[in-house]
Amino acid sequence: MPRQRPRPSEEREAARKGLAERLKKAQAERDKALKAAQKAIDEAEQKFWRAVGNEVKSYHGAQGDTAELLDYTRDHVLKQVKKHSGTT
């Protein structure tokens, strides 16, 4: 099998510059998509825990029932509801 010749220096530098530009563009696109995905996750979490927060107030003992049905501790439910409802 014949050995490949190394590229001439100028050609390699031009190829490297093009590669760097394409990689930078791909990385920016990925970062933008990840940021949008994280925003969607955050919005879904907030909507879910606000709904849970409304449900735990529906009757006496609902917080315990909610925790059991969601397979979380009561403390976790309380903390997440507080976190996503904006109360401290």
Could you give a short description of this structure?
By secondary structure, the chain is mainly alpha-helical. Helix content is 78%, strand content 0%. It has one domain (9-85).
Structural overview:
This protein is 78% helix and 0% strand. The chain is rod-shaped. By secondary structure, it is mainly α. The protein has one domain.
Features:
88 residues; rod-shaped; 0% strand
How many separate helices? 3
Percent range for β-strand residues:
under 5%
Quantity of strands, as a count: 0
Name the overall outline.
rod-shaped
Layout of strands and helices, then pairs:
Layout: H1 9-56, H2 62-70, H3 74-85
